[in-house]
Each structure stands twice: as C-alpha cells, then as structure tokens.
Amino acid sequence: MYRVLFVTSDPAARKPLKSGLLEQGLTVSLLEAPELLKEDFAPGKADVLVADLERSAIEPHKLCHAVKRDRALKDLPLVLLVTEEQLGRVDFSWGAEDYLTLPVSPKRLAERIKFLMWKLNKVELKNGLKHGALAMDFERYEVHVRGEPVDLTYKEFELLKFLATHPGRVFSREALLDKVWGYDYYGGTRTVDVHVRRLRAKLETGRRVYIQTVRNVGYKFLAEE
Predict the structure, then answer these.
(1) Is the pTM of this model over 0.90?
(2) Nearest to 177 by CA among 194, 161, 191, 156
(3) Alpha helix (H) ranges present in the chain?
(4) Which residues contact residue 225 at a Cβ distance below 8 angstroms, ignoring those fewer than 6 apart?
(5) Are the CB atoms for 50 and 7 separated by under 8 Å?
(6) Average pLDDT over residues 74-81
(7) Structural domains for the chain
(8) Residue 55 Rama label (left phi>0; alpha psi -120 to 50; beta)
C-alpha cells in the first residue's frame, strides 16, 4: 500500500479526492502547503508526494523548491496537479516526475501514482524486507542474518536499506552520498567505501555476497536468485 503525502492549500476541497484515493487502496495524509516553510516541519512517512498547485498559497516554483530542499521529502517522486491555464508555466526543472490536469478523478490519480512507482522501480515499503538469510525491520531498525542480530550504525542501516530496496541497480559513490547522506554532506566518496566495507564485514560472514562492487562505477545489491 503506497503512502501519499498530499500537499494542498485547500484541504476541505480536496477531502473527496483523499477519500477516493483511500478507496483505491492508498493511504493519504493531507498537508497544508504553508506547513512546508516552517522550520519545525516534520512530515510523516510517505512513498510519493502529490502537490496541488490550484489556488496554491505558495507560488508553484517555490512550493516545489521547498519540497526538494527538505531532507525528508527531496527523494520522493513528485506529482503535480495543475489547471489547464497553469500548464504553460510548469517547469519540470522544479523536480516533478509527472503531472495531471485538474479536475482529476481519484481512480486516475491512483493509477498514475501506481504506474509512476512501478516505472521508478520503487518497492512498497511496509515493515521491512527479506532477501534470503538477510532480514530487515524498517520500523525497529533491526537487521538479522540467518536469525542472528547484526549491530549496524544508523548510516550503515540506511545505506543497506537503500541498496536492498533497489536490488540489481548500480549506484555510483556520488549517488549514494546524495541519497543516503544528503546533498549538504561535505565528506568525500571515501565515506561510502568505508561504510560498504563495514557492512560486508558484518553481513557477509559466510559465502553469501550481498553488496557487489562494480568496477569504475560503484555498488549494487545482489538479490538472491
């Protein structure tokens, strides 16, 4: 079940759309647009963000930039809801992956969200995942290998989680720095190598390899065949 964070300046008007998305099997949290600009803003967990630009209390480009600056939101796929009149002013350099014109039915929006998540190879995160002998609990921040607990630091856990939820995909060290450490981290790519080496030492105690080095590129997670 995908979790949608719905940003709008008119929550009352969008309640029917929220109800329709719930009926389509999605979970939805409505967020008033001005909340994005508050210093103590703390969004709940989400898999995709939908930004309603109609009658927005924030200029559309500023709303999108606020989303992409926020550490908790910047990696979420962003879908824009726009009016026909706004279409010519929408700039995808703002960071949006998709858009729909208003009015839109809950069914169509839900289908577009599910297709986007499939296209981006996103995994529906529930309570965790399991790859062979490796088990991760995202809520408790716990990792077990063959039933035995593995003690990971926060960043080791986040790095493993990111790689394991994108099995088979190769990520450069620079991409991993951005995705796991964030754009404001000033350390070098050597940090990634150190954390991967530590993960391997803790996880790969047998013959099973979880993280593979792709020469001159970066790393990828090997899903069990």
Answers:
(1) no
(2) 191
(3) 11-23, 60-69, 106-119, 154-164, 173-176, 190-203
(4) none
(5) yes
(6) 89
(7) 3-119 (3.40.50.2300), 128-221 (1.10.10.10)
(8) left
